[in-house]
Structure formats: structure tokens, C-alpha cells
Amino acid sequence: MAEIAHAERAHALLSASSAHRWLDCTPSARLEETLPDTTSDAAKEGTVAHEIAELKLRRALVEPISTRSFNAQLKKLKDKELFDEEMLQYTDTYVEYIQGVVHAFPSPPYIAVERRVDYSSYAPEGFGTADCIVIGSKQLHINDFKYGKGVQVSAVDNPQMKLYALGALKAYSLLYEIETVHLAIIQPRISGQASEWSISAADLLAWGESIKPKALQAFKGEGEYVVGSHCGFCRAKEICRARVEHLLAAGSRAPMKPPLIGWDEVGEVLKKAEGIVSWYNGLKKLALAEVLKGGNVSGWKAVAGRGSRDYADLDAAFKFLQEKGIDEAVLFNRQPLTPPALEEALGKKQYKELLEKPGHVISRSGAPTLAPADDARPAFSDQVKPEDVFSGPVGS
């Protein structure tokens, strides 16, 4: 497989994955460019999972790979530091979804795996890599495998996916007639169902034309800094002046007259304060790193945190304790796994067959939680009394 390793691929300034940022906050791309690009363990883990998914998908649908060659390549991926056995199950889910898309065509469609696409006609120097492209019967499918389990990503009106689709249209429209574009995000660690959305090719091209002015602004580093949910993965999120001032301004609504603020004002304060806790903790981490490397953060210093204790040799320690008459029941705490933990241990498929279908697990709705009005989840329609939700015996 003569492919560039996922972790070594070049990234565009106006990358598709960051489009939700630079389309809303046009100067952010150039601002991020001035900061180091650190890679988290979660991102590295995702890279390994993507490489396994690519290998499986190529073997299943694109390239005839012998079992011996496949196993040898898979073994190399399994030897990577962040490999986990559950990656094999989740990548199978992704491959099965793509196979379902392919087999739904009346005749064999065109399939491209990990295809670099160029959308520079809409965003200067823009390019990216689409996980899987399927074309046939005037349909274009853009499929994206996401291994993260922290935030569920929707395909609905997703700018990253739309940019990939624009690049695919540019690459293939002379070879294939395309009328409809289908976008799908497969995120098996969060949901067994792919997020899907469709748009006509004409509407997609119109959207591409509409973003050209903003993309040009972003490329030049021009425009106003805009704070919002898109800040979440920005490299500058902890020290961006616009965001800092926005978060600190959350308290400016407090000294109002009359002394009690109204519910309309509560909504405004909540919006302004959203993210302030995670921002504060992130900023403290950055400040600590600066102090530890010899820098000066006015009014702060690094001190030793709370220590920890561990056994020099667990087996030797417990054996010694038992020889001294300590009962084994004192040394071990035996507890049943919770349904979520057991699902992770067994895998979603076996968990569903052995526990959910026979009725051994009871699912209960969570307590109401406050969410922004544009949250994708439906609002509660019943009139729920707060005392019915939050009352009950202590510890229940």
C-alpha cells in the first residue's frame, strides 16, 4: 500500500477539518499558524484507527490483498503504541457501512479510498483527504470515519464534508454525471448509526461560491474575531484575547438593577459564561508549562502537587499480608461491571445480543439538563415538575 502515512500528511492552512472555525472566525487560521501544533494521544489513537480502517477497506473493496500480506500489514499497525483491540471492532463497523453503500448501487460504483481532493477554487490553497468516495448512478457519496468518542459530529450541513464534496466534484465531474451528494459520518464509538445528510450538486456548488469571500478573508488573516462553539479545538483558545474578554465579560451582567436579574438576562449570562471553566483550567495548564520551562507568570509559581502511593511489587506485598494473617477479602473489592463498562468489554454487538435483546438491561432516561436552543436534541414536551426530578431519598 504505497500511501503516505496519515500522521505525515500535509495540511492546508484552510483545512476542511477547521472550516467551521475559519468560516465563522476568519482571522483564526492565521492566528493558529503562529502557535505550535501539538498532537494529543487521542489524535494519535485516531490515526492508528484510520490506518487500520484504510487497510481493511482497500482489501474489501479496492485492492486484491492476500491474506498473508494483509496480516503482515495489520500486525505492523497492531504493534503501534496506541493500538487497542477494540479498534478492530470499530473499524469493522466502518467497513460494513461502506459495503452497504456500495452494494446498494444497481451496478458496481467507482470507489476511492483516502483520496486527496483539491477545493482551492473555493478556499485558497485548500485541499484535504476524503476517507472514502463512492460514485455511481448520478450519486456522489463522501464518507468520513471519526474515531473520537468525546463529541458527536453531525453530517448535517457539515462544512468539512461539503468542502471534501466540492473537491470530489472538481475531480470527477468530467468523468461522471453527479446530481446528488450524500454526506456520511461514521463515528462508531459514540453511535451505531451513521449521521447522514444529502444536498443537490447544484446547491453544493452555490454554497461553494458563497463562501469564497470569507475564505479569502481567512487566507489573508483579515476580519473580526468571533467567539463561539467553534473555538473548542482552536490552538489559540486559551490565550485568544477576544475569547478571554468574552469569557471574563460574563460577570458584567451581575450588578444589575433591580437586584435580581430576569430569566432573559440569565440566558444571556449562561451563553457568555459557557466554556469558562474548561478555559480557566486550560489556561492554568499553559501557565504551568511556561513556569516549568523558566518563564515568568506574574503572581504565580509552580509547587509540588499532591503525591501518590503505589506498591513496589503488588503480588509480593499481598502475599506478605496474607502470610501475616490478613484475609483476602480485605485486600480485594469485588464489584459487578456497570452496563456501559460491560458493553465496552464485550463489544456493542455481543452486548446487545446477550443483554439488551433478552431484556437483562433496563434503560432509563436521564434527568433534564439545560442546553442551548440550537441543540440537536428535542426539547422536553411534558411539563416536568422540578420536585419530581430532584426529590427522593439521599443517595438515590
UniProtKB/TrEMBL annotation:
Chain residue ranges for the region called Disordered: 363-396
Domain of life from the UniProt record: Bacteria
Database matches in Gene3D superfamilies: 3.90.320.10
Protein name, per record: DUF2800 domain-containing protein
